[in-house]
Amino acid sequence: MAGRPGHPPLHRSPAAAMPPAMSDAAISIRGLSKIYKGGKQALFDVDLDIPRGQIFGLLGPNGAGKSTTINILAGLVNKTAGQVSIWGFDIDKDPRNAKASIGIVPQEIVFDPFFTPRETLDNQAGFYGIPKNKRLTDELLRAVHLDDKADAYARSLSGGMKRRLLVAKAMVHSPPVLVLDEPTAGVDVELRQQLWEYVRELNASGVTVVLTTHYLEEAEELCDRIAIINHGRVIANEPTRELVGKAQEKAVSVTVDRDLDKAPDAICFDKVELKGSRTLVITYSKDKVNAGEVLAAVQKNGLGIVDVSTQEADLEDVFLALTRAG
Ligand SMILES: Nc1ncnc2c1ncn2[C@@H]1O[C@H](COP(=O)(O)OP(=O)(O)OP(=O)(O)O)[C@@H](O)[C@H]1O
């Protein structure tokens, strides 16, 4: 969704401007645990700060605890232990302001199919007690490019349109924090790009965005910071470029022309392993050296090279390595 010239910012300060206990984080989570009825523990003592102004990615495999976390933020699931504040408002002590500070786009598409997009947004604004003359219905419809569908039944919208309507619905009360739970599931590539453009636009207007996704490439492209959650625990929480830095590791497998007793060493190798008697698996950082230098180092040890194969790590590998370790 391309930004429109003169398009008004969709984010206004939340109704309660100054939170009592000002915290720097948009969302602050301390010692959060959740045990469902029946005994399933979905979260274990989670600590997480989501900085203001960022696009923050919450990644994790199925069943990791992402939805549980989001549902606790949304007030849909009761936590078992811990503290959560949204925009500085404690969800137990100040639930009204905490709720007013967050908009949530759920994973499932849920709204009444007999309401039109305009009615859907108007009803939601009414639910938040926003007076008619303060409602942003038309602006929101324009922003998500549904102005020409404003009066069509929701059931006649395509999947992508419905998803955009859900985003608009989450923004009716101009929350400073927007959470999207797997927003692109079932959305085709083009619409996904449009949705991300809109998310970027919202973020540029000051909205802190939290999203869960399985699309690591998208998280890499969109998010300033990424936390990885696995089996109910946060196992990584780093600026995206640092996490991606971990993906700078590259391995090359080199078969040499004679049997070796031990692997040779060189400064440019991060790690070297001898497999069988003739194959060296050498790990190096591709931001520091290139494959040519690595091979030259092998030859300097007086070895001839018979065969070479390389493997490249990407964020997917880092994610898998971290979640396996968890
Ligand atoms: N209402 C519930 N009752 C019992 N167990 C639940 C309930 N909701 C979730 N769980 C369990 O808690 C764990 C975490 O689930 P959660 O939905 O938070 O994971 P997730 O990371 O969001 O996964 P997904 O990507 O599949 O949505 C899972 O083992 C799940 O089966």
Automatic annotation (TrEMBL):
<dbReference type="InterPro" id="IPR017871">
    <property type="entry name" value="ABC_transporter-like_CS"/>
</dbReference>
<feature type="domain" description="ABC transporter">
    <location>
        <begin position="27"/>
        <end position="256"/>
    </location>
</feature>
<dbReference type="GO" id="GO:0005524">
    <property type="term" value="F:ATP binding"/>
</dbReference>
<dbReference type="GO" id="GO:0016887">
    <property type="term" value="F:ATP hydrolysis activity"/>
</dbReference>
<dbReference type="InterPro" id="IPR003439">
    <property type="entry name" value="ABC_transporter-like_ATP-bd"/>
</dbReference>
<dbReference type="InterPro" id="IPR003593">
    <property type="entry name" value="AAA+_ATPase"/>
</dbReference>
<dbReference type="InterPro" id="IPR050763">
    <property type="entry name" value="ABC_transporter_ATP-binding"/>
</dbReference>
<keyword id="KW-0067">ATP-binding</keyword>
<protein>
    <submittedName>
        <fullName>ABC transporter related</fullName>
    </submittedName>
</protein>
<keyword id="KW-0813">Transport</keyword>
<dbReference type="InterPro" id="IPR027417">
    <property type="entry name" value="P-loop_NTPase"/>
</dbReference>
<keyword id="KW-0547">Nucleotide-binding</keyword>
<dbReference type="Pfam" id="PF00005">
    <property type="entry name" value="ABC_tran"/>
</dbReference>
